[in-house]
Amino acid sequence: THFSLTIECEDEAEVDAKLDQFRAIWQARGKANPLLHADTRGNNVLHALSKTLTSVVASLATYIHCTCLLAPEAAAHKNRDGNTPFATLVSRPSATAAPLQCLMWHYPEAVRVQDRQQLLCLHRLLREGGYSRSEANAELVIKTVVAAWPAAAAIPCVASGGFSGGEGSGLPLHMAIRNRKTRSCASAIFEAFPAAIDTPDPADGLYAVHMACARPSGYHHSNYSSDPKLLSFCLEADKMAATRTDSHGRIALCHVCQSRGNDRARDSARVAKCASMLISAYPDSVKRLWPTPDVHRALAPGTSSAMLPLHAAIIFGISPDTIQLLVEAF
Predict the structure, then answer these.
(1) What gap in Å lies between CA 121 and CA 70, rounded to an integer?
(2) 232, 221, 170, 226: which is closest to 200 by C-alpha?
């Protein structure tokens, strides 16, 4: 019962009572341990507990602790999807600190286990769309996983499960920025593996700063525009950020001016702020020519082989505030 001492609102008497209850069930079945039984999906009791809302089972950590004491092997069991109970709990938007810490205490290797798609728990967390869970919960779970195994921040994710165009691949920092996790999350991952900030994603040649400015192509990213908070983080963490070019020769300001997520009136202030930060960091960015992609030539027939950020902003209908900034800076 010593682990219960680290769990708030839990006492040894409560743990003892639940342990006695579980033991009675165990002994009634003879030698067979019902806590190791798995259903047709391969889920055992710990998987079932990990799917339970903490609002329904207030003492979830205690139940998990008792199960692990009576069936230590249960914490390492994988279901048909290759998920351990820890991975199942991590995927729940209602996951709280105590159950997560309890499972990691009983099975520290949980954060290192890959599922059937070769994804770590950290990869799965970072690929989630912003609608999946609250920012506070995302920060809690991501920071817990990174703190448990900082080396995970250096392990790239291979795109799978329908993700394409780099958005579901790359280093964890790339994924955090693409999926618009909080600055705090990005900072925790960066501290675990600082080299990620100046390492491009081989899938599309973008650096972290470009990802903070460009809208990913996935359907659940349709509401994502350039992010001033993440861009500010990139500029502070990478002194060369504003001048870095992607595999197509584009700097970050070009991504702000050509992103289809930046053409809405409601995002005009965010987009203008991003443009302003980039121009301040690299004043000559407004004069940088870059090769014109085929998509631009299709939108504007007769376009030359190279264009300025201002040209892209006009073609893509970026807000007048941003266009005014570009004109004044030029």
Answers:
(1) 25
(2) 170
Exposed e or buried b for every residue in 170-205, given b needs 16+ CB within 10 A?
Answer: bbbbbbbbbbbbbbebbbbbbebbeebbebbbebbe
Amino acid symbol at 190:
F
Lookup result for tokens 């600082």? 194
Distance CA 162, CA 155 (A): 20
The torsion of the CA quartet 166, 171, 174, 180, rounded to 10 degrees, works out to 100
pLDDT tens digits along 281-330: 999 999 998 876 655 555 555 555 688 899 888 888 888 889 999 999 99
Q: What are phi and psi of 155, to 5 degrees?
A: -100, 115
CA 117 to chain centroid? 17
End-to-end CA distance of the chain: 68
Give the residue ranges of the chain where pLDDT is below 70. Answer: 1-12, 15, 22, 25-32, 53-58, 129-132, 159-168, 216-224, 260-266, 292-305
Contact 113, 159 (CB under 8 A): no
Q: What single-letter DSSP state applies at residue 170?
A: B
Contact 213, 252 (CB under 8 A): yes
Closest CA to 234 of 289, 265, 284, 277: 277
249: which DSSP letter? S
Please state, in angstroms and rounded to a whole number, the distance separating the CA atoms of residues 86 and 317: 46
How many H-runs (helices) and E-runs (strands) does the chain carry?
A: 16, 2
Buried-state track 116-140, b at ≥16 Cβ within 10 A, e below 16 = eeebbbbbbbbbbebeebeeeebbb
Q: At 85, list the tokens.
A: 């109970």
**Cα separation, 326 vs 308, whole angstroms:** 10
φ and ψ of 193, to 5 deg: -150, 80
CA distances (Å), origin 264, targets 10, 62, 193: 50, 49, 35
In three-state secondary structure terms, 186 is helix
